[in-house]
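Q: Convert this sequence to structure tokens.
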Amino acid sequence: MATHLFCDGVQRRDFLRVGALTGMGIGMGLSRFLAMGKEGAVNPSAKAKAGILIRLVGGPSHMDSFDLKPDAPETHRGEFKETATNVPGMRICEHMPKLAKCADKYVILRGVSHTLAAHNLGTLYMMTGNRPVPSLRYPTYGAVMSREKGSSPEMPAFVAIPNQGDYPTGYLGVEYGPFDTGAAPRAGVRMEVRGLALRNGVTLEDVDRRQNLIKKYDQAFGEFAKEDKVLSGMDEFSSKAYAMMRSTKAREAFDLSRESEAVVNLFDKQDFSQSCLLATRLVEAGVRFVTLNLGGWDTHNGNFPSLKTRLLPQLDAGLSGLLLALHAKGLLDSTAVLVTGEFGRTPKINQRAGRDHYPRAMFCVMAGGGMKGGQVIGASDAKGEGPKDKAITPDDVAASYFNALGVDYAKEYNTPTGRPVMIVRNGNVIPQLF
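A:
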């Protein structure tokens, strides 16, 4: 999403930057989507250096995945059976056999609960750890990590595969937003990310000439350019895009063909698995935060065939591969992983053999970042209708996730109007995780 549009007051200098890139066939991937946050203060006690968020878009059924209720009434329990994992007493759905074999690598949170049954509001809550309010837009996990941790000169701080969608950086501003890849990688095919591949005969010398032109234009603005926040933001933006275009490291990070055969074999050939593989490479190359999407979980109709034949196998292959690949690369302890939808689904099966929106009970999966794998924290009641005892809130999940990432979740930022706001207002770290 563009920082400026012509009819919304685009600066002439901004247009020169955009035109200098798009006119060369380089594309809008870097100039439009890439954001470079300033180097943040890195907490010396940080357990993780990077994070990966997997969004199960649509709201997955807790009752048919990580929180089955085999003793519930037939109207609730569903068609699937539990299967044992490699952790005694920890059981998940039979259609996730690969995740069953690596359950020691992750934690299941059950009895996660809130009250927002709309997709957009539930997503905003689960991606920020703050209940949405009309008066303020809170920053997503990736935006906070981009601000707090910064990035290397050659890599973006925050990447979304294939995109972040309409979920904002909030009051932090677009400079902390993600670089959207625009597409999912494909197995056995070299990925050409917008902005990294030079096409139509364009050479690096052409890029250098255009960059020199921009520098001369910058000099003409003098001190005015330094003082103007929009222009100075574009300076960082363009410099990062330029550095990545010239960077062999950046291009190689997005090239799955360079991965070892042993790691490639941990994944299947589907888009989600290949996106998970790419996420491990990006973290390895220095990206601070990666967001992945796996959609299709809005199963009001035909819940069971959709889960059995498509959704659960995709999640099983991709997430197990991601955890095992991070472990094989020695990155699991330094990478905090969070898997979540926007809510769960109704425990009672509807008349269309589906389940409807249900925020009162859902699950999250967490891994890495110093969190203790191989455990279940929290519980839902006998019918999966709500927390059995104390609820785990999205705020608690966020506080715990930021804790694993080495970010002080109680830190205050100032909004553009000067209002002080905590990163997470109401959450507390879940002590059993650590």
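The first strand starts at residue 50 and ends at 57.
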